[in-house]
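Re: the 230-residue chain
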Amino acid sequence: MKIYGLQKMTLLDYPGHVACTVFLNACDFRCPFCHNYELACGTSPAVMEEEELLAFLKKRTGLLDGVAFTGGEPCLHKNLPELLRKVKDMGFGVKLDTNGYHPEMLEKLLNEGLVDYVAMDIKNSPAKYAETCGVKAVDMEKIRTCIRLLMTAGIPYEFRTTTVDELHEPEDFTQIGELIKGAEHFYIQVFTDRDTVPFEGMHAPTREKLDACLAAVSPYVQDAQLRGAD
């Protein structure tokens, strides 16, 4: 498997761990606020082969204790379980970022004990899901299945929504809350504009709007927080 990016150390991407972050390419969504759009659409070049990543990790044994896999969408890669097994066999914890649209792969990874922490994006309320993903249609049953898988897997997980002023309203978070009712952790992430974001005209919500979104979702989950707010 080819690797499309490597952040050699992070204290943020894998909660409670000193980790590195591995970027894989390709995604079936085209979110207009995506920070990694070149990875998502497949135009970014690979930076190393799988063997080089494993060699890097071998040298970091004892210095790093986790590896976070992100993208793109890692679950699109059929060889993902094999790679994660190799990383686990080296003694590292594995954190997975996913868009929650590949329940078969997610179930396989969970059943085989190949992930230790999963962060799943909840893009928006069901009625606005496809628009927010930049696609014509979304099968919400796939999203709901992945939510159920994580909530019953017995491993740490989080749900999160990157909030864009032009795409999200507080009432959307009531519906998001209904989707993930009973979840342990939910984070409202604040959109930050970057050069890699594909579309102009996207803005972060005001703090007042963020607080209203948080208030709307909080009754449905055990712990809801703002992440990246001033």
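Residues 177 and 217 are 5 Å apart (CA to CA).
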